[in-house]
Amino acid sequence: MYETNETHDRGLTSWVESANDSQTDFPIQNLPFCRFRTLISGLGIGVGIGDQILDVSLCVKEGLLRTSIDHAVIHGNMNALMEISVTERAELRASISRLLSENNTALRDNPMARQRALLAQDSVEFVLPCTVGDYTDFYASVFHATNIGSMFRPDNPLLPNYKYIPIGYHGRGSSLIVSGHDVRRPVGQLPPAQDGGAPGFGPCKLLDYELEVGMYVGRGNRLGEPIPINEAEDHLFGLCLVNDWSARDLQRWEYQPLGPFLAKSFATTLSPWIVTMEALAPFRCPAFQRPSSDPQPLPYLLCDNTTHSGGVDLNLEVLLQSAKMKETGEGPIKMSSSNLRDLYWTPAQMLTHHSSNGCNMSAGDLFASGTVSGPTRSARGCLMELTWDGELDNPVPGTERTPIQLPTGEQRKFLADGDEVIFRGACSADGFRTIGFGECRGAVVPALEPAHQTT
Amino acid sequence: MYETNETHDRGLTSWVESANDSQTDFPIQNLPFCRFRTLISGLGIGVGIGDQILDVSLCVKEGLLRTSIDHAVIHGNMNALMEISVTERAELRASISRLLSENNTALRDNPMARQRALLAQDSVEFVLPCTVGDYTDFYASVFHATNIGSMFRPDNPLLPNYKYIPIGYHGRGSSLIVSGHDVRRPVGQLPPAQDGGAPGFGPCKLLDYELEVGMYVGRGNRLGEPIPINEAEDHLFGLCLVNDWSARDLQRWEYQPLGPFLAKSFATTLSPWIVTMEALAPFRCPAFQRPSSDPQPLPYLLCDNTTHSGGVDLNLEVLLQSAKMKETGEGPIKMSSSNLRDLYWTPAQMLTHHSSNGCNMSAGDLFASGTVSGPTRSARGCLMELTWDGELDNPVPGTERTPIQLPTGEQRKFLADGDEVIFRGACSADGFRTIGFGECRGAVVPALEPAHQTT
User: Residue B282: phi, psi to the nearest 5?
Assistant: First the structure.
């Protein structure tokens, strides 16, 4: 478990003035990693500071920062950086913090170097922060699982394994994309109009977002060697925001017996920033308080650390802006807000469970949390929950089905072409600067014309 | 679709004498790719010929073979080789075939070069033939799906989507291992003794193999751009054997609602060889003959090519040798044999379906077929089918449950520690040399002691 230290000091300010703005996601207490590309410098590893990026690759090249893997860092190899020891990570964080501190002159008073090493965030192309070898999607919100379960299986919403197993499945790595890229509405098999009938084939009609948080693995484990729960936190590198775009009609028809497949693999959007476990130290919180009627986790998923501070107090929100809203100058509206602390399982429990059969993790592997929903209606993390099964043909008796009203007079049950979905996240705690996650953003573009579909 | 040409000529012989042996898997008509490592030359790309490997990386380095990606080939980058055009692949195959032909003197009559370029297969360490970016496991045998379905869901064995969708799920890439490595029995949550009870936690009791065939992707597609069925074959590089080791007790407890996870991700064994689509040309066969009561595939999965030659006539067999059989000198016994042509879906249909939502494939991605079972008892590709639910607590009424008898007097319902499982595959057709797939082999070693489990 990471401890709070001087890098979190509320009084710490930076010579990068925008970092001292009370509204920034990226004060000097945050220092999230990203990767970017510029025409001049090519692929680089950076750290967010105010509205700027500190080019860490360049700083290492010029001797302003040092690591045990300088060559890899200079060449933008984030995975190598994710694999260094927890001790070395803390040292790197401390040295970046010093380099950017108000009183440090090394860069501050060297205009030439400073100009090269600081890049405006709006001047670069962000790329995926690392190579994700394997991507796993969990299902760790009991509120989400109960809501979705009652729509897909009204008689059996929460399966008997849910309270014992951090349920997850392998996701598709190749279609992970970084925030800001459009998402094409997928085409696929649509459920038959009646039982026993033939499915349709065409553009997804029930396109949804899912508000999730991603956890990046730092140092991995060898095949056959499980990660004990007390060591799990040492293998976590940091968190990001994830939009697990979901084609609900494809999903409903395809998902049995082997789980979601094409309903998810057309695109998954990641925020460009990795907020490190070190930065999150002040915002750790107890694991979810299980109702007394629920079973305790099995011993391999229990530990003192996770009992007291296994969760993360991370506020999340979803915003939506339709094409018409953009045209008429209406800003995005808030769809919901929820908090990562409401997950039934902690990141450490997910990681330990995942490796309990000996499965090997590598630096850069990504776990998504599953949709982060809370106990209230305003904390539902996807449209399917918010509009309670939206346009599907078989509503659950007795449940309301409330379309979302947009300020333009438009209604939404699921996403329309042109809709842009924006996730934000921030951690706040008494006595600490608020740290943000930046944005995870994507707009829906129309499906391919039939001539370019696979027909 | 690949055409048969002079590289398949039955009369073609090689100056590598072992390639002319009628029993070899690797006559000059085969030329499967592999990757290997030696102390001297490091990582290399090779081609199997008789009991030898032609070091393709070295031949390119020394100018005996030429490609458009010489640098990548020299450095053992198989993925780059998999991405070249179908035309260039055919040219490379033809030039390798010429280099190894009886009458070609370039290597044959140069003892120094020949000694460096030919390595005995039993002298090298095989490694995974490429970097598998994403691994997908299908469920394409209707016989397997019906058998397993009737055990997991007796009232509903074959779900309504099966005959429309090539059902598949994302698998775990990190735990793919190459033939010859031991497989540790996984530990995990075991189903509760009675409904509503707590699960156990310990070594898997119902460990199984699954006989599968893997399909490697050659050139990929861009995100959002589906691969039409008529072009799908151009994106296939070749086939291998796959053992999708399965922990049936873990699987039964964890798999709903999101599919298999830890029951599979502890290890998946691949044969070292990729038998190319070019080599398989003489052994293509019509797609599965659906019963007239079955629906036709939707238009996006139908094409003239696949109607006439979408399948592959590939004979497969499973052998097993227990530790006691090894001690007493008993050779492996045959458990079952089946044929890839019995799959309900063709490789092209699986690929086109997988990309139909715009999901992007990359060179080196791997699709496994799912267990290849046939219509008869002797063609069941896993123990769970052969022993009909083996030791599970709830036998299907009216079904036989027949343990396997080993020549040592031992019985098997599922795998015991020390058991070695061996898959073999071969294609035969009138007028052609038989080509083989080599072996996919792995032995089960005991689970970690409890102190080293994640408890």
Answer: -70, -10
**Alpha carbon distance B180, B149 (integer Å):** 31
pLDDT tens sequence across A140-198: 999 999 999 888 778 888 999 999 999 999 999 999 999 999 999 999 999 999 988 99
CB pair distance less than 8 Å for A174 and B223: yes
- Which 8-state DSSP code applies to residue B84? S
With 0-12 CB in 10 A as exposed, 13-18 as middle and 19+ as buried, what is A194?
Answer: exposed
A353 is catalytic: no
Q: Which residue of A has its CA nearest to B250?
A: A357
pLDDT of res. A388:
85
At residue A143's C-alpha, the angle toward residues A139 and A145, to 5°, is 40
User: What average pLDDT does the structure give for chain B?
Assistant: 94
HEC readout, chain A: CCCCCHHHCCCCCECCHHHHCCCCCCCCCCCCEEEEEECCCEEEEEEEECCEEEEHHHHHHCCCCCCCCHHHHHCCCHHHHHCCCHHHHHHHHHHHHHHHECCCHHHHCCHHHHHHHEEEHHHCEEECCCCCCCEEEECCCHHHHHHHHHHHCCCCCCCCCCCCCCCEEECCCCCEEECCCCEECCEEEECCCCCCCCCEEEECCCEECCEEEEEEECCCCCCCCCCCHHHHHHHEEEEEEEECCEEHHHHHHHCCCCCCCCCCCCCEEECCCEEEHHHHHHHEECCCCCCCCCCCCCHHHCCHHHHHHCEECCEEEEEEECHHHHHCCCCCEEEEEEEHHHCCCCHHHHHHHHHCCCCCCCCCCEEECCCCCCCCHHHCCCHHHHCCCCCCCCCCCCCCCCCEECCCCCEECCCCCCCEEEEEEEECCCCCCCEEEEEEEEEEECCCCHHHCCC
Element (H, E) at B387: none
Do the Cβ atoms of B261 and A173 come closer than 8 Å?
no
Smallest CA–CA distance, residue B68 to chain A, in Å, is 25
How far does the CA of residue B103 sit from the closest CA of chain A (Å)?
Answer: 46
Query: Is residue B152 over pLDDT 90?
Result: no
- Predicted TM-score (pTM) above 0.90: yes
Is B349 exposed, middle or buried, given 0-12, 13-18 or 19+ CB atoms closer than 10 A?
Answer: buried
pLDDT band (50, 70, 90) for residue A449: confident
Using CA atoms, how far residue A300 sits from A223, A232, B311, in Å, is 18, 11, 46
pLDDT at A439 over 70: yes
Q: What is the ipTM of this complex?
A: 0.95
> Which residues in chain B have Cβ-Cβ distances shorter than 8 Å to A362?
174
Residues facing residue A336 across a β-bridge: A318
Q: Cβ A187–B153 below 8 Å, yes or no?
A: no
Report residue A190 as tokens. Answer: 């649509």
Residues with Cβ within 8 Å of residue A330, at least 6 apart in sequence: A321, A324, A406, A407, A408
pLDDT, tens only, A240-249: 999 999 999 9
Q: What digits encode the pLDDT tens for the residues B23-72?
A: 999 999 999 999 999 888 789 999 999 999 999 999 999 999 999 999 99
Of B201, B357, B360, the CB nearest to A262: B357
Distance of alpha carbon A277 from its chain centroid, rounded?
14
The answer on pLDDT for B364 being more than 50 is yes
What's the half-sphere exposure (Cβ side, CA atoms, 13 Å) at A410? 20
